[in-house]
Amino acid sequence: MAVQQGHAPAAGTPTLGRTFARLAPFVKPILPRLFFGFLCALAAGIVALTIPQVLAWLVNNVLHPEGKDSEVWLAVGLVAGLGALEALLVFLRRQFVITPAARLETQMRVRFYEHLQQLPVAFHERWGSGQLLSRSMSDLSLLRRWLAFGALMLVVSTVTVITGLVLMFSSSWVLGAIYLAGAIPISIKAFYFRNTYRAASRLSQDQAGDLATAVEESVHGIRVIKAFGRGRHMYDGFNSRAKQLRDTEVVKARTLASFLLYVVAIPETTLGLGLVAGLWLTAQGELSVGALVAYFATATVLAGPVEGMGMLLGMTLTTKTALDRHFEVMDTPNTITSPQDPRTPANGRGELELRNVHFSFPDAAGTVVPTLRGVDLRVRPGETMALVGMTGTGKSTLLALVPRLHEVTAGRVLIDGIDVRDWDLIQLRRAVAVAFEDTILFSSSIRENVLLGAPDLPEEQLAALLNEAIDTAQAGFARTLPEGLDTVIGEEGLSLSGGQRQRIALARAIAARPRVLVLDDPLSALDVRTEEAVTEKLRITLAGTTTLIVAHRPSTVALADRVALLKDGAIDDVGTHSELLARNEHYRFVIASLEDEDTNVLEGGPRA
Ligand SMILES: Nc1ncnc2c1ncn2[C@@H]1O[C@H](COP(=O)(O)OP(=O)(O)OP(=O)(O)O)[C@@H](O)[C@H]1O
């Protein structure tokens, strides 16, 4: 199965404008504050540009023999006052933009998380977790920083440079033209820079995502890595990926540095040319000394915004890439949704029926034989049916179709006579509880884990439900933990043994009080005696609950009311364990292989 590594699609990358236009609905509510922030930033830029004009006035009118002392102090006071005003405006700019930008980031992050929750299992099987992690965290942080600073300063810097040029032209068109001429090579360089930097930026963000996936996988699989002594191998793999990211970052930094070289060197060169021309013009009497001073002071003020524009362009391109990555996930349609007019039977008894069900995994569609090819099965209300078949025949896949974790390719799955696609999705998943073989628990208390899917009930009833579920699943060990059922279990429950985790997960499925219970070999890590105790208790507690259980042990199979045999993507036979033993050769073969497996486990041998 190919896991999405998240690299840029070769074609169809949206333009800069189109990408940022998609921010409009999010930016709209905070537009007034952004606008005031922009005004403050602009005013700060203009105030900075006013200081050279005060200097020009000082040189032309005050610094000569008839100049008055009071006017010198006035000029000094003006420069100091303008400096203080600029600082105040910069402070106000930050106040206006920081909070709304952080709010926008949170809003987009929460929507992203909500969308991830809704996307089907098939999507999550394709995408690396690190890619999703980096898209929800670092990409959106980039956006906040750009919005609070980059976007504003890019506009302000542009306006400041244009205003500075107008001031230069107004004192001398020759000097203005010399300074402006520097913009031509910078623009040409910027054109090439944009393409190179955008590609490098996309690559580095995708590689960072892949690296996050590698960290996540290594942490998740640390026991396997240690047990197989593969630490060095994993380290080497990680090291080489980290180096790839480093190389991309170096390319990115070099590209930006070479662009900045132009952005810094060209205005400095034009300033040198301006000096020669300005001195000549002053000597000719065509330019006042004050105007010349003002020209150089303006050029000095402009040096910051001009250089800043290079950096800000880089920041804008990185943010564009981050947004593209964000919207790639947000644009992935959720293919498993509630219907417009859902139908939910009020008091169904939990009858489960599969009619001519076909299923292919989306990745494998059209290339390999469909996993399920015409499954017909009816599980009576309150019945416990075991699903048996050779490994890889599609038992887990069949189970996943009941709560619509996957969608049938053809055919129908019905609960109480209604197609699961016609159920309200939330109602359906309340009606069907699931426990898997590889248990997923959350890093919260045992109580919260068990009551995850429980119905809304008063506190005392919830407590009773919790105790009943714990007892049925033979998970009483949880009460002996340091803080009993309030003990917080480590990340993914890794502080518990495999069997303990399975029993907590089973208790969770029981506490959901479902109509249909779907169990994917949830007792595989238990010893046969505990498994028997669990199954016996389950029969009593869930007497009226329809149960479909994938069984890998003859003991589980024997406890079921009936058994369905899955073979070649379809149900080969249904009957009691003894009926099938008597009449179905393939069933005898499957049971014999399960017995072999069990013996191997009991004798400490390998388990397939
Ligand atoms: N996400 C996926 N994408 C493509 N193929 C898949 C995916 N998941 C499972 N398969 C394939 O579908 C087939 C059925 O898998 P499934 O897990 O349902 O079998 P199973 O009968 O439950 O096996 P086991 O008894 O070993 O648990 C297998 O051939 C498997 O390789």
TrEMBL record:
Keyword entries, A-Z: ATP-binding, Membrane, Nucleotide-binding, Transmembrane, Transmembrane helix
Record-level Gene Ontology MF annotations: ATP binding
Any one Pfam family match given in the protein's UniProt record, by short name: ABC_tran
ABC transmembrane type-1 domain sequence ranges: 35-318
Family annotation (CDD domains): ABC_6TM_Rv0194_D1_like
Transmembrane segments: 34-60, 72-92, 146-167, 173-192, 259-281, 287-306
Coiled coil regions, renumbered to chain: none
Signal peptide: none
Membrane topology term: Multi-pass membrane protein
SMART domains reported for this sequence: AAA (SM00382)
Domain named ABC transporter: residues: 352-593
InterPro entries tied to this protein: AAA+_ATPase, ABC1_TM_dom, ABC1_TM_sf, ABC_transporter-like_ATP-bd, ABC_transporter-like_CS, P-loop_NTPase, Type_1_exporter
Keyword Transmembrane part of the UniProt annotation: yes
Localization: Cell membrane
UniProt keyword ATP-binding present: yes
Protein name per UniProt: ATP-binding cassette subfamily B protein
